[in-house]
């Protein structure tokens, strides 16, 4: 039975005349992810690095998101060929690899997404949702066209190597993570420090010069606006858990006096 897989994140970026705006799905809840999927945002990042998401919960979230006009992207836990293989076999077409700090690491990420002889991805298409259990005609031959790879620069070393990383064949986009980058620069928790912003902007320039899309994580609306004005092709502007945390705190602040409020520090 011939089936057509969804357009990739690479194709969505190429087709858009404006920056693509997305958010994180970190709760591990398919219901919360489905709520976010219907938001009208462009893309949704299902995170397996800093959240409770497992292979099983990621699979269910990919299934519920498929009903909505939003592009799902999965961040794997690490640049590990086994983890990448498993997430691709779940049917994730778009993946982000964290902590890529060199061209060699970028090449390893590319190899993990490709079948031999171009790469090292294990062959299990008859068993996996990625090929719809061999219902996608020519999946083994054409899998690279269905798969979009974004690598994440999150260290000072990665900033220095941004041009070489972006030039690696098979890297479709670069995503900058200011949180870990600030820590790498000795500025832990200071994502909007001028030195961190300068480093992010230097990555923008290097990646754009290589002809690849570049994005950034920016929950601060002012920072997001500045990065969009500075040439970001895609931006993650919030997260499900962060939105719930801030909104529930706002409810408490609105309806409970400070004297009556429970001590959150005790929890």
Task: Please outline the helices and strands.
Blueprint: H1 9-15, E1 20-25, H2 30-37, E2 43-47, H3 55-65, E3 71-75, H4 81-89, E4 94-97, H5 103-113, H6 139-146, E5 148-153, H7 156-160, H8 162-166, E6 173-176, H9 178-184, H10 194-209, E7 214-217, H11 221-229, E8 234-239, H12 240-255
Parallel strand pairs: 1-2, 1-8, 2-3, 3-4, 4-5, 5-6, 6-7, 7-8
Characterization of the model:
The chain has helices at 9-15, 30-37, 55-65, 81-89, 103-113, 139-146, 156-160, 162-166, 178-184, 194-209, 221-229, 240-255; strands spanning 20-25, 43-47, 71-75, 94-97, 148-153, 173-176, 214-217, 234-239. With 267 residues, the chain is α/β, with parallel strands linked by helices.
Q: In CATH's first tier, which class of the domain at 9-150 and 218-251 applies? A: Alpha Beta
Question: What topology, given as strand order, has the largest sheet?
Answer: 1-2-3-4-5-6-7-8
What name goes with the CATH superfamily of the domain at 9-150 and 218-251?
Answer: Phosphoenolpyruvate-binding domains
Q: N- to C-terminal separation?
A: 54 Å
Average pLDDT taken over every residue: 95
Number of strands: 8
Q: Any idea what the shape is?
A: globular
Strand content: 5-15%
Task: State the order of secondary-structure elements, H for helix, E for strand.
Answer: HEHEHEHEHHEHHEHHEHEH
- What percent of residues adopt helix (DSSP H or I)? 40-55%
Radius of gyration: 19 Å
Number of helical regions: 12
Structural class: alpha/beta
| Largest sheet descriptor | 8 strands, parallel, barrel
């Amino acid at each position: 039975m011939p089936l057509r897989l969804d357009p990739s994140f690479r194709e969505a970026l190429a087709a858009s005349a404006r920056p693509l705006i997305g958010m994180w799905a970190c709760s591990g809840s398919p219901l919360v992810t489905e709520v976010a999927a219907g938001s009208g945002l462009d893309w949704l990042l299902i995170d397996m690095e800093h959240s409770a998401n497992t292979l099983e919960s990621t699979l269910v979230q990919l299934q519920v998101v498929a009903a909505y006009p939003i592009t799902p992207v999965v961040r794997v836990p690490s640049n590990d060929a086994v983890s990448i293989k498993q997430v691709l076999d779940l049917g994730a077409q778009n993946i982000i690899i964290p902590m890529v700090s060199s061209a060699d690491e970028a090449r390893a990420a590319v190899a993990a997404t490709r079948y031999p002889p171009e790469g090292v991805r294990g062959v299990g298409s008859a068993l996996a949702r990625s090929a719809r259990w061999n219902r996608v005609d020519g999946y083994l031959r054409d899998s690279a066209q269905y798969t979009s790879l974004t690598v994440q620069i999150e260290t000072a070393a990665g900033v220095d190597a941004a041009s070489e990383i972006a030039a690696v064949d098979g890297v479709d986009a670069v995503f900058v993570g200011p949180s870990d980058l600030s820590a790498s620069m000795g500025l832990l928790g200071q994502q909007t420090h001028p030195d961190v912003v300068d480093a992010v902007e230097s990555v923008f320039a290097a990646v754009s010069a290589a002809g690849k899309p570049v994005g950034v994580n920016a929950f601060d609306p002012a920072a997001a606006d500045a990065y969009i004005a500075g040439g970001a092709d895609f931006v993650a502007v919030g997260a499900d858990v962060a939105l719930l945390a801030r909104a529930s705190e706002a409810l408490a602040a609105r309806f409970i006096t400070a004297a009556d409020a429970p001590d959150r520090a005790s929890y």
